[in-house]
Design goal:
The chain is mainly alpha-helical and 94 residues long. The chain has six helices and no strands.
Length: 94
């Protein structure tokens, strides 16, 4: 089910909060994106940045489950939120 842009941004902010509180994953995210902790604060309202956070979490099923369980959201909501944010569109090559 498609999510509204507003709901997708809320899921992105929730994922960012979850990631910021995860001492194991936060350094991996920062290292892989080149972002700093200051960037996390500065970009919390930027849909493109929130999309990158969701992209990161979506890289591992265990991370998806852990985040969704912590946020009490449906497992499909994270992918639906990503699709609703900039850069998350499905590409059709035919």
């Amino acid at each position: 089910m498609a999510l509204s842009k507003d709901r997708a941004e809320i899921v992105g902010v929730q994922a960012l909060g979850w990631l910021a509180g995860n001492e194991e994953l936060l350094p991996i995210f920062l290292g892989s994106t080149g972002a700093s902790t200051e960037d996390l604060r500065a970009n919390v309202q930027e849909p493109e940045f929130l999309g990158s956070v969701l992209d990161f979490v979506l890289m591992d099923d265990a991370w998806v489950v852990a985040f969704c369980d912590a946020a009490d959201i449906d497992y499909n909501d994270i992918a639906n939120a990503r699709a609703a944010l900039p850069g998350g569109e499905q590409v059709h090559w035919t």
